[in-house]
Amino acid sequence: MNSDSDLQIAGDILEVPHLLQPPREHPATVSEFVGLARSIAADRSQWAHLVQYDATSRWYHRLRTGPGYEVWLLSWVPGQGSGLHDHGRSSGVLTVLEGALTERTERDTRALGAGSQRVFAPGYIHEVVNDSLEPAVSLHVYYPGLTQMPMHSAQCAPAVVTA
To answer: Between 37 and which of 95, 127, 131, 137 could a Cys-Cys bridge form, CB atoms 3.0 to 4.6 Å apart?
Structure first.
């Protein structure tokens, strides 16, 4: 069963900016990983020149690694999606850098515009899709580094967008 229990217990850390800490060279907490993603997103010189678009499959590039974590850059042309999956034992931060993506879980559908972030724990099942007419770029931080991405066949929530 999919659960947003990490957010239900603590609330949405992304809505409480004073809890976010400035990024350290090597993050160790959820707020530091969020800070790392935000600092990379804010500095286009770190990623914009690397972005490529591929009409046949999602393009991805490992941007950075650190002790136990990885940072990935992905591009999405209209209609491309991840399929319903989880990230094995990895937690993550998803940040939309450009364009818009839609995240679907069995309970909810969220529109994610540029600057939007989602934090998830191991076992969090979701699908990310570019439902727009423009390409999108996203940044993904995984801790520990992503070693598996099991696919699921269950259906996600209907396409009702919430804030």
So the answer is: 95
Which one, of 147, 143, 148, lies nearest residue 29 by Cα?
A: 143
Instruction: Give the C-alpha separation, 91 to 145, whole Å.
Output: 9
Tens of pLDDT, residue by residue over 88-133, are 899 999 999 999 999 999 889 999 999 999 999 998 999 999 999 9
Kindly state the greatest CA–CA separation across the chain: 42
CA angle 138, 8, 24 (to 5 degrees): 50
Residue carrying the six token digits 């999108």: 136
Q: Is the peptide bond before 144 cis (omega within 30 degrees of 0)?
A: yes
Q: Say which DSSP state 85 is in.
A: B
Are residues 84 and 151 in contact, defined by beta-carbon separation less than 8 angstroms?
yes
Q: Residue 152 corresponds to which tokens in the numbers above? A: 């699921």
The residue with tokens 């801790």 is 143
